[in-house]
């Protein structure tokens, strides 16, 4: 028999926040690199990398909010994603940038922050009342 005790309360919340922060940092870095991918069909340009990256941010934050049962883990991931996007928007030592100053870059620089605010600040929906599900 092991003498290990599962963390409860604040320790579990701090662990969930730290884990979500690391996941957000990782996803923010990968999505920042991939947001520039596009598909060209004739003269039409489809920015699939940007769309996939924004959908990924939304899925990550909503998923963490639902699984963790609160805002703290989603806020941790949001801080990680937005922080990495902001950091990688700055020019590097040689002057190169990962987030260009065009429409795609601007949408990527602002989009994750807007998604984070909406997901983290969204009110908790009230639970359905039992016995009212089939009533008209």
SSE series? HEEHHH
- Give a quick account of the main beta sheet: strands, pairing sense, barrel closure: 2 strands, antiparallel
Percent of residues in beta strands:
under 5%
Average residue-wise pLDDT: 88
Q: What general outline do the C-alpha atoms trace?
A: globular
Alpha-beta content class: mainly alpha
Helical coverage, percent range: 55-70%
In order across it, which strands form the biggest sheet?
Answer: 1-2
Number of helices: 4
- Low-confidence stretches at least 5 residues in length (pLDDT < 50)? none
Radius of gyration: 19 Å
Terminal CA distance: 54 Å
User: In total, how many beta strands?
Assistant: 2
Can you walk me through this structure?
- The protein is mainly alpha-helical and 136 residues long.
- Helices cover 62% and strands 4% of the residues.
- The protein contains four helices and two strands.
- A two-stranded antiparallel ribbon has the order 1-2.
- A hairpin with a 2-residue loop joins strand 1 and strand 2.
- Helix 1 runs antiparallel to helix 2.
- The model has no long low-confidence stretch (mean pLDDT 88).
């Amino acid at each position: 028999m092991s003498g290990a005790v599962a963390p409860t309360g604040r320790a579990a919340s701090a662990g969930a926040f730290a884990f979500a922060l690391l996941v957000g940092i990782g996803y923010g870095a990968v999505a920042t690199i991939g947001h520039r991918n596009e598909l060209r069909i004739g003269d039409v340009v489809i920015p699939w990398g940007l769309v996939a990256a924004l959908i990924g941010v939304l899925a990550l934050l909503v998923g963490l909010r639902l699984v963790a049962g609160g805002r703290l883990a989603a806020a941790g991931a949001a801080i990680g994603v937005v922080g990495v996007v902001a950091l990688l928007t700055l020019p590097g030592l040689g002057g190169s940038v990962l987030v260009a100053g065009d429409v795609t870059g601007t949408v990527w620089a602002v989009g994750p922050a807007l998604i984070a605010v909406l997901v983290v600040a969204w009110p908790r929906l009230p639970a359905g009342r039992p016995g009212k599900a089939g009533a008209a």
